[in-house]
Write a structure and sequence with these properties.
Arc Repressor Mutant, subunit A, six-stranded mixed sheet, binds adenosine monophosphate
Length: 228
């Protein structure tokens, strides 16, 4: 078993789930006038939902709860709120996944307090039913077991922070590329490396550019070490 169970989500799944979610909302008989994306995870699904439901107005609230991949902060907080007059409007607050439920709930409260909406409902593509304390009004997929779902819009970011986390916690000073790959599979499973292989090299380059990693010479081989 990997240390952090990861499932890769593909673009066609995102489109299929967004369509299914739109169908569920339509079948309820309720129609939103405005969609509010919970940034940043909710952006892409919210835009797709607008398309499938024919909604013109898309706004956003930014909530921070998982500052890096698979690492939760104690408390979710609102980084950017909203200032808009939504009186008389039916509002749908939309995120990619509901894990603890804190982000979507907080965003819902923000909209209720800021903008005088007629009503606010919540939606997500996925809900982890075993961890959440809040189930949104609409969702496409219910999952039982916890995984870090690696969405297409966080590939580089997730892989970069996964590499750093692994290197920090392993406490090994020098890493060959082979060693990084071997440990990465041990930590996060095979699928992530296979499906997002091109991102892996790019993540290493980005970490080097940011000074998080340094490339050094190990007897003629390229090695990496944490820098700074
Ligand atoms: P939460 O406040 O715990 O419901 O977390 C919601 C936000 O954190 C979502 O918008 C996601 O972007 C991110 N997130 C939380 N848990 C996961 C997970 N298991 N897989 C992928 N993203 C997650």
């Amino acid at each position: 078993m990997p240390r952090v169970p990861v499932k890769v989500v593909k673009w066609d799944e995102i489109v299929a789930w967004s369509r299914k979610l739109a169908d569920n909302i339509r079948a309820s008989g309720w129609t939103p006038d405005v969609v509010v994306a919970v940034a940043r995870g909710g952006y892409v699904p919210a835009r797709l939902l607008c398309d499938f439901l024919g909604v013109q107005d898309l706004l956003s609230v930014q909530v921070v709860h998982w500052p890096s991949a698979a690492q939760v902060a104690e408390k979710a907080y609102v980084k950017y709120g909203l200032s808009a007059d939504l009186s008389g409007k039916e509002v749908l607050v939309m995120d990619d996944i509901v894990d603890t439920g804190d982000s979507v709930l907080l965003a819902k409260e923000v909209v209720e307090r800021c903008c005088k909406p007629k009503s606010v409902r919540t939606a997500a593509l996925q809900v982890i039913i075993s961890t959440t304390k809040y189930v949104p009004d609409f969702y496409a997929v219910e999952v039982k077991d916890w995984y870090w779902y690696q969405y297409p819009w966080t590939a580089l970011e997730d892989i970069s922070s996964f590499i750093v986390r692994m290197m920090r916690e392993e406490r090994q000073e020098l890493w060959t590329l082979d060693k990084i790959v071997e440990k990465f599979v041990e930590w996060y499973g095979n699928e992530l490396l296979e499906e997002r292989f091109l991102y892996f090299r790019e993540a290493l380059e980005r970490l080097k550019k940011e000074g998080v990693l340094r490339q050094v010479n190990c007897d003629g081989y390229a090695c990496y070490q944490l820098g700074g």
